[in-house]
Amino acid sequence: MSNCTGKKIVKDLERLVDGEISASPIICELYATDASMFRIVPQLVFYPKNIEDLQKVMRYAAKNKIPVTPRGAGTGLAGESLNTGIIVDLSVHFNRIHSVNLDHNFVHLDAGVVLADLNENLGKYKKVFGPDPATGSRCTLGGMIANNSTGAHSLRYGMTRDWVLGVKLMLYNGEIVDFGIDAPIRQGLEKILSENKELIETAYPDTPRNRHGYLLQDVLDEDGSLSLAKLICASEGTLGIILEAKLLFSDMPKHTELASLLFKDRNLAAKATPLILKYDPSAVEIIDDVCLGMARKNDFYRSLYPESVGAVLLVEFDGDDSNILLNKINDMRQELFYREELVDEVRHEEDPQQKKLVWEMRKLIAGMINRVPGVYQPVPLIEDVCVRPEKLYEYFEGIGKIFDKYQLKHLCFGHAGDGVVHVRPFLDLKSKRTYDFIPQLCHDIYDLSLSLEGSISGEHGDGLLRAPFIQKQYGDLFNVFVQIKRFFDPLDILNPGKKVDSAECDLQKNLRYGEQYKIAAQDNILHFEANKLIEMVEACNGCGQCRTRNREIDMCPAFRGLSHEKMSTRAKANLMRALLTGQLKDFDLDELWDVAKTCINCKACSIDCPSNVSAGDIMLELKARLRKLRGDDLATRFILRLDFISRFMNRFSLFANAMAKLPFNRFFMEKVLGIDRTRPLPQLSGRSFVQEQRSFQRKHPIAADAPIYFVDFFADIMNPHLARSAVDVFRHNGIELQIPEQASSGIVALNYGNVAEARKLAKLHVETFYPLVEKGAKIICTEPTAALMLKDEYAFLFEEEPRLKLIAENTWEAMEFLYELQREGKFKQDFCALAEHLIYHRPCHLKKLHGKKMPFATMELLSLIPHMQVEYANAGCCGMAGTFGMKRSHREVSESIGENLFTELARKDIDAAVTECSTCKMQMEFGVPGKRVFHPLEILARAYGIRGS
């Protein structure tokens, strides 16, 4: 390897390329891990903008013998995308679908296109690219080709290799092979393959899946045609970098039916699997008792699969005739339940929502199992074995004996129909004892696999994890693999350490958690229960769910905005872990702050992350630490004083509002304070609703147990119409709201790391609200963030504050409170008709408060208004996030995050929008000028005939 340092390489390359290139310790740390057990810090990371960029880097790397590894979403489980040289991230700019050919059913696309995006595009034509790994919502097609990926439906669609027509490949020296093979390569490759034809024909296992080593079968056909694409599948970036591909696709199935088969234990499920296959299912997936135990933490899955269920097989059928599919389920039930008596229940999943959630559980298992408390975690170590399904029962019995020998608990899930069941032992990866027996454990499992004529690697890659065992499976064919590697990559710079040049079972090197892994003594600024911060950081397994663009998943808005790894939830966990362990050194504080502030504390990860990693909580602690080290810049000091400044200027609202619109002042605010000059600033009302009401209530006292209205900042001085609407709507329903002394919730101070100010505000509200709550008062919030602060965030500010529990239990978001009234039959429905079509945006912090449960209180209540039509905008975060979107430096990402929402709001059939969040309202009215956005209480007030809008 070259002695060039990262900084020198960057200096050399910056003159040559247009794409971003970085040797920053922070950026390199983000690419030091993937979804595997390994950690290797690269010298630099490169984001090529075009093919010419990448060519220049490859020529430079070849000249200086610097390793290069291409990377897509970084979701590999075997360390495939890690190295010490240059990591090339193709997911940022290489993501274009060039063309879709419906006449011949193929698509031409860049390597960085995400599978879910491709299938969303193909779905318009009722077409689908079939191989469906569980990471399909974020994995790239280039990665799928390099890994030869597949998923739950491989019984129907096979592996990626079965669907690749051709690839455009860049070789080690920057040379491009453009969907064909030129003469010199053809001659050399033909020679290697023809000389070893007999060995190639006999050395591969007869299993439903195999992707171990290089796949040389069918690369050279009988007619002499040579398929580079078949060779590149499963090559893991060791032979060339995939730039583009042409992929076949197929028709979407017209009908699918799903059955859940419930067993006493996983061995019975294994015994039933070969019997099921004769009914031609499209998927047969197993979930064992250990995985079910983790899924049962969700109420829905606990009710679906009670403790008596020891294993589940999810069996799906697809086809053109639903009656035929139902008959298959019935025939299968007759055989397995009545004749063979293997299964306790065969349940046809008829309800579409339940069917969706059942499949969702299977997809989330790999992340969900990382919620296990304690040092023993299920590790993807030997999980990729494939045996023929008729030998699955024998394999299960064999691994049970092996794990008993090592006194290890294990779990199983995955593709029973293909004989690839992901088996994960529970290991303490921080213990020396573990690494003493790991090599022998691997040999024992793989010896069992080979004795059953199986394959060591059926799906999840060789990488650093399984490459040491390739020769064990293939014997003499391994030497042919070496020839292939040397032929394509004579300098050994393409993703070295994988396939043919790995160390012999040296699994103690380059570990994310190893014997030397140590967390420094914690002196947290915020209060985390026990070791909660460390547990959250370590729970991140790198699965990459935070990189998804699926509208059913809201995290991570910042990543959706710019598609850069540093924006993701995973990045935040990786950085914090590196900081806590002292592995991240010599970093720039300002750069670390720039990454930390891309977390907008939306809390979506606390709902959507399968491992329950809340980057929002982690980043609150990091921001507090960074503020202590670096202080505040001028713009931050302004924002932290915005409450005081706004309340002071509210006395001179006409003057302040006029001055805020002057171009010179906006220019000054942008240059000095970083506030984007194009954004309309919220207008001051000239009065304080809280002061107004407190003055009134001093003369007209309200009962001490009456609900408290926590007004918060915007409704107090910028939108008192909302506050008045709240009071009037509650009064109309026979409820008087009391307005005690209060201030802003403190969310701005907390988000910028000013814990002292946030704690001061929290203490004020605890002292004021608690005596009233003790007397029976509820706290009503029209701002979801205010409710979130009282229910959750204030707990971070106090080590011991027992009063918070009672306050949290009695805090309500206003619409949720009214919805409860409606359920009790106490909500008045004497509305006048409003013939309007509204679109509803559900704010991020409201999702955190109530999860994704249905029904949504706001939509339910507004739908009671005669002639009112309310539609849910399932479009994710708006991108404003408090003051985040006000910054000039954040405008691009803020608008990009909100793009889906703007598209929905801009529809001509939509009259206006509703949302509970004040800053969401600002963003939506900015993104779609001319469309008004209201709080739902303002709509209710108008429907009651109380206030006009």
Explain what the structure shows.
This protein is an alpha/beta fold and 949 residues long. The strands form six sheets. Strands 15-12-14-13-17-18-16 form a seven-stranded antiparallel sheet, with helices on both faces. Helix 22 crosses helix 25 and helix 32 crosses helix 43.
What structural class should be given to the helix and strand makeup? alpha/beta
Runs in which pLDDT lies below 50 for 5 or more consecutive residues are none
The portion of residues forming beta strands comes to 5-15%
Q: Termini separation (Å)?
A: 70 Å
* Tally of separate helices: 43
Average residue-wise pLDDT: 92
Largest sheet: 7 strands, antiparallel
Strand order of the largest sheet: 15-12-14-13-17-18-16
Cα radius of gyration in angstroms? 30 Å
What share of residues is helical?
40-55%
The outline comes out as globular
Count all strands and give the number: 25
